[in-house]
Recover the amino acids of this structure.
């Protein structure tokens, strides 16, 4: 967090962010390619604190670089590209879900496919659970 935020100054958002993301974490994010602007830090805090899968709209590819760098340490990042045929991107999605790996989906465009939408909303998990209990 900035010195102004630590001293009680700074904007309300900066003070709130200082509760969610400490200076050490911000420095690590910066080393891994995240810009130092307030919006990037807000987005990083959302990704880090989210209980659901975050959707990053990333026209400049800065977020993609950051996600790749952050997940590289864990070695669990799988990448799927919409339109990918070998293997099909939905197969990569299924494998990531079954292994618990992080998944980065690239080239999504402005529409989310029905297959992906059901995963995001956890409809598939609910159907699987109900069919397994019968």
């Amino acid at each position: 967090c900035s010195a102004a935020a630590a001293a009680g100054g700074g904007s309300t958002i900066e003070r709130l962010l200082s509760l969610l993301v400490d200076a050490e974490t911000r420095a690590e994010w910066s080393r891994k390619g995240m810009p130092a602007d307030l919006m990037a830090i807000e987005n990083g805090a959302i990704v880090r604190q989210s209980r659901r899968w975050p959707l990053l709209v990333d026209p400049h590819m800065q977020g993609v670089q950051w996600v790749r760098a952050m997940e590289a340490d864990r070695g669990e990042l799988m990448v799927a590209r919409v339109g990918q045929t070998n293997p099909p991107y939905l197969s990569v999605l299924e494998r990531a879900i079954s292994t618990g790996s992080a998944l980065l989906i690239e080239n999504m465009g402005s529409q989310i496919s029905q297959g992906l939408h059901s995963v995001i909303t956890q409809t598939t998990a609910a159907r699987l659970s109900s069919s397994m209990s019968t």
